[in-house]
Write a structure and sequence with these properties.
Blueprint lengths: L16 H30 L6 H28 L6 E5 H7 L7 E4 L6 E5 H17 L4 E9 L2 E8 L6 H4 L19 H11 L3 E6 L5 E8 L4
Parallel strand pairs: 2-4
Antiparallel strand pairs: 1-3, 4-5, 5-7, 6-7
Length: 226
């Protein structure tokens, strides 16, 4: 089992957090202005009826890249202004039953009825559903959920039967914008955001895999013993 360590701050330095957010928001604003000019002129050129095929193809690539860059900027804006947490009592067995995994993936669990954590229900639900999508991408059919009591915390383990994660990928799995999906619809921020959100809840996340037959996601969260 991998060691779960406290995630590091996203930005380090001696300046207050408000300064960093103001700096990031300013950069996002400037990038959006540049992107507007780039996308606008590219769009006008692509609508030119006399545009040659030799020019149309690279311009289309620029337009596609602009669209992807816009998504990156939107994600950066979201990360710089995290939504407020709504911490509440979350019964893990009920949460697992409420998940909406992709077709072909089944969540199997036999969790204790009294296993409850202090978490943001909707954010934790999205993280677990993202686990199902990752398992689906790896060809899994089942995700087995178990829980273990660790003094004042619960360790939630989600084990799938997919093709696993290669060691060279596993080492980078929490890096922002790192993805192995070949399509351009993935920004590689799923696990990075999950780690950040769980850290805000006082929790942690780690992954283990043999690289060929399984991936296990381990999430720790504070107990709610009410």
């Amino acid at each position: 089992m991998p060691k779960i360590s406290t995630s590091q701050p996203l930005i380090k330095g001696d300046f207050p957090e408000e300064y960093h957010r103001a700096l990031i928001n300013g950069l996002i604003h400037k990038l959006n202005n540049l992107l507007t000019v780039l996308a606008g002129h590219t769009g006008l050129l692509l609508h030119e009826p006399k545009l040659s095929g030799d020019l149309r193809e690279p311009l289309q690539h620029i337009a596609t890249a602009s669209e992807l860059l816009s998504r990156y900027i939107d994600e950066a804006a979201t990360l710089s202004r995290p939504a407020p947490l709504r911490l509440e009592r979350v019964v893990l067995s009920r949460l697992i039953r409420s998940l909406k995994p992709p077709d072909g993936i089944e969540f199997i669990s036999d969790l204790p009825r009294d296993a409850a954590v202090l978490a943001d229900r909707e954010k934790l639900k999205r993280i677990l559903e993202e686990t199902g999508w990752n398992a689906h991408t790896a060809g899994a059919r089942r995700v087995k959920c178990t829980v273990r009591s660790l003094r004042n915390r619960y360790l939630l383990r989600l084990l799938d039967d997919g093709t696993g994660i290669k060691p060279e990928v596993l080492r980078r799995i929490f890096e922002p914008f790192f993805t192995t999906r070949r399509k351009g619809d993935s920004l590689g921020l799923g696990l990075f955001k999950a780690r950040a959100e769980l850290s805000r809840m006082g929790g942690q996340i780690a992954l283990s895999s043999d690289g060929k037959s399984y991936t296990e996601v381990l999430i720790t969260l504070r107990k709610d013993s009410k």
